[in-house]
Amino acid sequence: MRDIEFKINSTDIHPNSEIKGTISVSYPGRYDGVVINTQILDSNEHIIYKSYNEKKISQNVSRLFINKDVMPENKAEFTALIKFKPNQEHEIKFRASIIEQHKEIESKIIFAKYSI
Fold first, then answer.
1. Mind listing the pLDDT tens digit for each residue in 44-82?
2. Cα(24)–Cα(45) distance, integer angstroms
């Protein structure tokens, strides 16, 4: 098993539909937390993270760091949203990484498509 497992509820995403994801860490060493980076390819638009582990995020963030201290059983759940209306199909790259002392230990990438 990998040190990080990462899943999202759907790889077929549409405007204003809620994206839900889960991250599980089994890394045996010490780590600071996980970070989720998302790129909407061929676009300058961003994803907006709304919550993690049922805690609302007050400001719009396009990169989400979740501290290990708020990850019970080394698991995290998040919700996100993409609002813009695309005039073409876009590929989205989700990347979840384990972070230890500002270094990436391991990551997992998921690709999804974004369209109307």
1. 888 999 999 989 987 777 789 999 999 999 999 999 999
2. 27
Sheet with 48-52: list strands edge to edge.
Answer: 4-8, 19-25, 75-81, 48-52, 55-61
Tell which residue, 23, 21, 19, 17, has the closest CA to residue 5: 23
pTM: 0.89
Q: Nearest CA to 22 among 34, 12, 39?
A: 34
The pairing of beta strand 12-13 with beta strand 103-114: parallel
CA Rg, the chain, in Å? Answer: 14
